[in-house]
Amino acid sequence: MSYFAHSFESVISTWDLGRMIYRIIPVPEDLVSTLPRSGNQPPRIAGEINDFPYSGAISRNSDGPYLLISARALKAIGLRTGDPVEVRFNLEAPDAVAVPELLGDALAEDAAARAGWNALTPGRQRALSYHVGSAKRAETQAKRAAEIVAGLKGLDGMTLPGSPSRRGTSR
Q: What's the predicted TM-score (pTM) here?
């Protein structure tokens, strides 16, 4: 008996949007149709792609459901476009957020930052967690975690990474 409730086989494909090319794993429509939905939110999953840990959402484009996979993850797994994959997964709660250890520790030590964090949507929390966790070096992760804590507290006019004022635009 598998630890994962769901599995499927697919092939790494690309989704070409002109200036951007995404690597995706098409998900069988018949599998997606059996998954419970939480409103209009896409199903979130945690599992493995060819034994490599993966978490994300089953998104949809005009061709059907898919999983987005980064070039870095493909390289780590040793896969390329056109390679077959086996995906095994369990469903996650729609508001589940995997917080990197350095960011979690920083939030645990600062009540004001933690309150700001708790006021964010799960999607924003995931984006900030990814911003920290995607850094290759521990020093960069620590720097990004500190920036987020400062931004959550509004210190020194700092803003959160990816926020409109940080990108130089306003809403």
A: 0.69
